[in-house]
Amino acid sequence: MSLIRSTAAELAGKIHSGEVSAVEVAQAHLDRISSVDKGINAFLHVDTEGALAAAKKVDDDVAAGRPVASPLAGVPLALKDVLVAEGMPTTCGSKILEGWHSPYDSTVTRRLREAGVVILGKTNMDEFAMGSSTENSAYGPTHNPWDLDRIPGGSGGGSSAALAAFEAPLAIGTDTGGSIRQPGAVTGTVGVKPTYGSVSRYGLVAFSSSLDQAGPCARTVLDAALLHEVIAGYDEMDSTSINAPVPPVVAAAREGASGDLSGVRVGVVTQFSGDGYQPGVLASFEAAVEQLRALGAEIVQVSCPSFDYALPAYYLIAPSEASSNLARFDAMRYGLRVGDDGTHGAEEVMALTRDAGFGPEVKRRIMIGTYALSSGYYDAYYGSAQKVRTLISRDFDAAFATVDVLVSPTTPTTAFKIGERSGDPMAMYKADLCTIPSNLAGNAAMNVPSGLSADDGLPVGLQIMAPPLQDHRMYRVAAAYEVARDAAQGGPLIQRVPQLEGI
Amino acid sequence: MPSISRDEVAHLAKLARLAVTDDELDLFAGQLDVILQSVSAVGDIATADIPPTSHAVPLTNVFREDVVRPSLGQAKTLAGAPAAEDGRFRVPRILGEEA
User: How would residue B98 be classed by pLDDT, with cut points 50, 70 and 90?
Assistant: First the structure.
């Protein structure tokens, strides 16, 4: 197995035993990025020097016989460009932050560095994480390695594409309405939105603060779990951080890999099927549910009627919070400034800068949020959306009183063509239909690939949802399913990505 | 059903400090109308007896010890500024004739 096609766990084992050096591993991935990223556009910035220096430190530890910093020390990672890191630019996919360097590290970045994880660079994303296709990046769309004419999902399409193109074995994403899970689904990779509050938001450039959550992305369930334990944990720099032990996700992934799910109750969400769902997606989902049954799980149907209102509630709450959060881009303290020629006052400079620096989707959401929060409309829009949020939490509570985890397709269709939905915001928003409830309720949820759709040969994702702080439950189910899936499908799905050499 | 006019969009843009062009106004007016009509569905089930949820994890009064901690310092703070002068942020005049 070549270095770039290995799992993070395999690479870590080889690096820590001295079989290969972390520098060789980093270099192999940097070479891969050089050879294929022109056609993928997963990376907005590649930090060659920083990556090699971080790798060298791990090699020094191994050579000196010192204990390595973590189980993932020396393994390369792609960091979504919404998490700040000193020594690298942070753009959030926006022109308004072009060339800006953060003066500090996010907590996620700091934890990665302290764990000896080798950060290769920053990945492309929809501007300020607003989108489901990465087409809203000011730096051009990212292409799906399964079919370069198609989207890699969004907003974290750079991270998902980097994994599927074997440019990195690990990545970090952020999930406000599905931005980790939906890109995972359409690229055949694993993506986890941990329980809200379990990974610090300090240094995560805010889109919708009550929903934003960073999480691990990988090509296997175990790799995601290993990364989860590196980045999660209480942080006093985030006032919404949960002061509780990190759920034992690595142990759960190892336990699940033994392939026994007897005694586990799995609920199928009845709302997430029917009109608007691609037949090949539903067929793959149904096969996955049968696989879970064969592993010993008990399958029951669960109705969560308020989930039908999650999408409209989300597209009020997220824009409302965004309109407030993005007020910080005022052309005064950082980022772009336009029209500062002595004839314009501060307010005019602010308005000219924001019009020049923000793309259309960001402007739409700022205006929707401004509208929803304005007096006279507040009760009908924002206030009602907050009530729907209560109903969604109640539906989850009722469901988890009878089942251990819930399952659904991760997104209603496979990867759509670049340009297909970019002129129709509502069509784009529907990609998040199944992922949004877990953001509104704050519980854990993840995508694990379930195979290729019979209608177009593109990846399909299975979503597994667990109660807050019970993240380990879904890892156990996902790991068991992954083993069974690979056995049934003749090997890991990800190894069937078309060759990209020669782009 | 709500309906949002081009003038209302222009007003929102002004409130949000977005100097949108006429072409953008034409585009956004139609799109915002479609989006707002769709999201207004929340009113169908949001009855008066349901309490609102603002946050997935209800936390109140998160305090820390009142101790001095190191901060970024002047040089790092100003490093990303669009304009700086005499160790301070330089900003355009804040009083003007604009409405």
Answer: low
Please give the residue of chain B at the shortest CA–CA distance from A104: B72
CA dist., res. A403 & res. A446, Å (int): 17
Q: pLDDT-based confidence at B39, cuts 50/70/90? A: very high
Cα three-residue angle A231-A192-A57, rounded to 5 degrees: 35
Chain A residue nearest residue B23, CA to CA? A360
Helix B6-15 × helix B22-39 angle, to 10°: 100
Chain A residue with Cα closest to B61: A239
Q: Which residues of chain B from 19 to 78 reach within 8 Å of chain A, CB to CB?
A: 19-21, 24, 27-28, 31-32, 34-36, 38-47, 50-57, 59, 62, 64, 72, 76-77
Residue A168 identity (one-letter amino acid): A
Closest to A356 measured CA to CA, from B90, B24, B92, B3: B24
Specify the pLDDT at position A1: 61
What is the domain partition of chain A in residue ranges?
3-308+389-496
Per-residue DSSP letter, A100: -
pLDDT in tens, A440-461: 999 999 999 999 999 999 999 9
Q: Mapping DSSP to helix (H, G, I), strand (E, B) and coil, where does residue B81 land? A: coil
Contact A87, A50 (CB under 8 A): yes
* Closest partner CB to A240 (pick from B17, B57, B97): B57
- Where along chain B do its domains lie? 1-43
Distance of residue A407 Cα from the nearest chain B Cα, in angstroms: 20
Whole-structure pTM value: 0.97
> Judging by beta carbons within 10 Å of its beta carbon (0-12, 13-18, 19+), is residue A359 exposed, middle or buried?
buried
On the question of pLDDT at A174 being above 90, the answer is yes
Read out DSSP for A339-403? --SSSS-HHHHHHHHHHHHS-HHHHHHHHHHHHHHSTTTTIIIIIHHHHHHHHHHHHHHHHHTT-
CATH architecture observed for domain B1-43: Orthogonal Bundle (1.10)
Q: How many CB atoms lie within 10 A of CB B7?
A: 10
Copy the structure tokens of residue A272: 């997430």
Instruction: Check pLDDT > 90 for residue A375.
Output: no
Amino acid at A133: S
Q: How many CB pairs under 8 A join A and B?
A: 193
Any residues with CB less than 8 A from the CB of A458 and at least 6 apart, and which?
Answer: A146, A147, A150, A186, A414, A415, A452
pLDDT given at position A501: 67
Decide which of 3.40.50.720, 1.10.3720.10, 3.90.1300.10, 3.40.50.800 is the CATH code for A3-308+389-496.
3.90.1300.10
